[in-house]
Amino acid sequence: MKRKSFAAVTSQQVAQLAGVSQSAVSRSFTPGASISPATREKVLKAARELGYRPNAIARSLNTARSRIIGVVISYFDNQFYPQVLEALAQRLDTLNYHLLLFVGDRDGNVDRIFDQIMQYRVDGIVLASVTLSLDLSEECLAAGIPVVLFNRSEESGMASSVNSNNEAAARQIAEFLMAGEHKRYAYVGGVADSSVNIARQRGYLAALAEQGIHDVQVVNGNYDTRQTIRAAYSLFSTPPVPDAIFVANDHMALTVMDVARYEFGLQIPQDLSVIGYDDTGPSGWPSYALTSVSQPVQEMVGAAVELLMKQIDSDTIEPAQITVPGMLVVRHSARRPRSGIIEQEGVSLFQPQEAK
Predict the structure, then answer these.
(1) What band does 262 get if pLDDT is binned at 50, 70 and 90?
(2) Mean of the per-residue pLDDT values of the chain
(3) First and final CA of the chain: distance in angstroms?
(4) What is the rounded distance in angstroms from the CA atom of residue 66 to the CA atom of residue 60?
């Protein structure tokens, strides 16, 4: 059957039916615009009768704003990013902005799809789990398009960023494991040169080194299940097997736990303590009960959106680096120290004596 085509209803037709000006129709569909409730109701009633919908593309040509924020995520295995995506979409919707999702390469570089993003005339860009080259950072700056790196950072400081306190949280993980009197330590990293991996590895190793612990096994799972399985096998196949492991994110930590329990017969936490980072949904399941650093998604998303809106509204880009504190949520995947555990709103947290 041939598809029917209909002539587009214009705002002028709505204005005529409602008995108002064309600008009143425009203001009726613009959140926050000045218009009386009675006039707006007349316009909406006429629009419903005619089947009118505002043309967002045409409006963007008139206002030079698309009200679209481009969001780039490179992979969804880590459930932290679906949580971030949902929170971002909800927060932007309250501001009458819309999210346009792009999926980047696994290597975390967004340069390949940069031209695609720019073709949509986005008002701003959020890069989650990916980074932007220096050349493209400069291009965005020159074009007046704000960029916020989410859970990533870059050395030039040309783009804004929002992160949890990666290095400090990793140090706290080391303190927790040392307080639990572990003897053999390991670290399972993500992508070796990613900014968050570098910060977490640096904080963990530095805190251990300060207490004279230098023999730490380091392997990388590259945020990938198969590579994490191989990394776990390398740790558990050759003595001495570690009894304390910090894994750079929860997705990999759950994989390490499965390999330890089901392939090597290790008991958790009796034989092995495992701590992750992100505190995603499965971490709280009884079958894992993973001790993990909780990244405050709502606070981080709020900070990212606030940065974007401030730069969009002011037409100036002054990059800012924001760090939002996380918390080490204590469950049952790691041996607990004798002190330092506090209860807060039904959640166990690690708070060393000197931090109180």
Answers:
(1) very high
(2) 87
(3) 72
(4) 5
For the chain, the structural domain boundaries read: 11-54, 68-164+297-326, 166-295+328-350
Spatial distance between the Cα atoms of 64 and 332, rounded to a whole number of angstroms? 53
Tokens of 167: 């290095």
DSSP states of 72-117: EES--SSTHHHHHHHHHHHHHHHTT-EEEEEE--TT-B-GGGHHHH
Q: Which of 104, 335, 58 is nearest to 223 (CA)?
A: 104
- pTM confidence score: 0.81
Domain 11-54: give its CATH code.
Answer: 1.10.260.40
Residue 316 exposure: Cα atoms within 13 Å on the Cβ side: 3
Q: What was the pLDDT predicted at 171?
A: 97
> For 83-92, what is each residue's pLDDT tens digit?
999 999 999 9
DSSP state of 306: H
Assigned superfamily of 166-295+328-350? Response regulator (3.40.50.2300)
Q: In what order do the strands lie in the sheet with 147-150?
A: 98-103, 68-73, 124-128, 147-150, 160-164, 321-324
Fold entry, domain 68-164+297-326: Rossmann fold (3.40.50)
Domains 11-54 and 166-295+328-350 share a fold: no
In the sheet that 347-350 helps form, which strands lie side by side, from edge to edge?
Answer: 216-220, 185-189, 244-247, 273-278, 291-294, 327-329, 347-350, 341-344
Q: How confident is the model at residue 355 (pLDDT cuts 50, 70, 90)?
A: very low
